[in-house]
Amino acid sequence: MAASPATADHILSLAADPDASFALIARGGRDVELLTGPIVDVELLRDIPLTGRDGAPREVLALVPYRQVRERGFEAEDDGTPLRCLVVERHEAVPVDEVLAALPVDTVPLTDAGFDLSDEEYAAIVRRVIADEIGRGEGANFVIRRDYVAGVDADPRTAALTWFRALLEHERGAYWTFLVVAGDRILVGASPEAHVVAQARGDGSSTVTMNPISGTFRHPQGGATVETLSTFLADAKETEELFMVVDEELKMMSAVCGDGGRITGPHLKEMSRLTHTEYMLRGTSRLDPRDILRETMFAPTVTGSPMQNACTVIRRHETTPRGYYSGVAALFTPDTQGGHDLDAPILIRTAYLERGRLRVPVGATLVRHSDPYGEVSETHGKAAGVLGAIGAVPRAVPARAVDPDAPAATRRLADEPEIVRLLASRNARLAPFWLEEQGEGRPGPLAGRSALVVDAEDRFTTMLAHQLRHLGLDTRIVHWADVTDAQIDAAELVVSGPGPGDPRDAGNPRIKRMREVVARRLDADRPLLAVCLSHQILCDRLGIDLASLESPHQGVQLTVDVFGEEAAIGFYNTFTARVEPGTGRVGPAEVAADPATGDVYALRGPAFAGVQGHLESILSRDGIHTLHRLAAHALA
């Protein structure tokens, strides 16, 4: 719907009408978009009303709560937060300067302000997640939140308009700066991150982009400098976190895009008080935009990985439901072909006004090296960033204006040669397969063969399947709970996939079924490739001992010898198969193991192969070549 002009007075009149619902969105232009219309609550994403009774497409802004992830079969507490749709009847534009001049500026008083969990309580949760979840192989990283809460001594709509004005005036670099008044739900924020965007191409397909962001550099007093930012960019923990997030979002891209997705970056996202590191992922999809949104719920930057287990961990350790936090605001706009474009930023850096209370949810990404009090500090910094940006508390660091004609001292830090060099150096570690055009349409070296991938609840299988198709195999994925013995027997090559958990836990139904898959193929002498968890199960079946790593490998790149060839491979494992150092063979299997520890990185034998690392990961620089070698061996 084309934007038509409106006035700031119209915004004020809407705010004064208790029955009016509206949204204000600033997306980097000279205008603020004003969307008005009625509210409709629906149960499922497919119910979002993209067409009217006459069949004509219409514009809809949908607030998608975190609980909607249950549509993917993942765990989430049902807190009743509605999937609320603003059905847009008018889409207008108001000049930013006019909005700034009209909106209120007085400070909104807060009372009884503080976190819902004490620092000690949150630190204790961090320790439990590291020990009980990451330490036991349940995943690579998890995002656990706490909420900053306060009373609001002002009319909620007036407070929200005041804070939206502060964001327009002081925040920069946000993807969306927004205010949504939807019935009794009021949200105001500046999201830095587009979770997923789909734009029609005119041939029935869409260009899909995702924008994984990880790593938060809080500007020191006086602002960021090349020196302070360089120290941040050289931090191994921050770099590893970003790589893990990209891997997780590539899983989603591989599920919705036939070409799997290509990575560009890394880039800096410079905001007023924070700087983030980010990549862009781009692919082509023919799915309905609501299906694209469903398959990409939700960003690993606010949940963790692997995604399904992250949702389980969140439910175990967060003390209250998330509401809209980590969900998305999804704007569906009719395109010229009768379909819809999708623009869906993540609902983070957002303040919620609910029953006279302000709530600002903030989370920290917990990894194996996390320091509990460091993560406590991270939540304080993020909350202060939101509160300072909306003017609810004094701004510790003034916003730094950017003038393209200004001298070098005030240029964007992303343009400084040392920063450019540091960012570019990150890609030297990554798989060229995901950074380059993948040459779709050429016959792969294994063309004419087929593979069945058994998913063990780690969607790395979508990336694995995409690479197998690139090699020429006709590939499909089946969930562990759905795969039948007949399918296992009939498959030309079975790829038994990775997943969370302890491979020795025979009481776990998923582990039990993956053991059956491996045993059935091994006993039948039928081609089998086992990856990560399944590799450990295969080793156990062959009589090789399993052990816990002292320090889990979560998002770690190692260069290892794989049967006479060195290969840089990404590892995500808490457990390992282990032989005596120097052992080259166990029974029918040739073993590739660490010469010092005996950790088994790969093995192969008659009609089978196994690999501990994730050859599909962006960290596997030699992944596609090694995958070809092992799959060809199993098929031979």
Name a few traits of the molecule:
alpha+beta, 636 residues, 32% strand, ten-stranded antiparallel beta sheet, single chain, 28% helix, 16 helices
Written account of the structure:
- A hairpin with a 2-residue loop joins strand 28 and strand 29.
- Helix 1 (8-16) crosses helix 2 (96-102), helix 3 crosses helix 9 and helix 14 (509-523) crosses helix 15.
- The protein is globular and about 80 Å long.
- The chain starts with a strand and ends with a helix.
- By secondary structure, it is α+β, with helices and mostly antiparallel strands.
- The strands form 4 sheets. Strands 1, 2, 3, 7, 8, 9, 10, 11, 17, 20 and 21 form an 11-stranded mixed β-sheet that branches. Strands 4, 5, 6, 12, 13, 14, 15, 16, 18 and 19 form a 10-stranded antiparallel β-sheet that branches. Strands 23-22-24-25-31-30-29-28 form an 8-stranded mixed β-sheet, with helices on both faces.
- The chain contains 16 helices and 31 strands.
- Helix content is 28%, strand content 32%.
- Mean pLDDT is 91; it is low at 397-410.
- The longest helix has 21 residues, at 236-256.
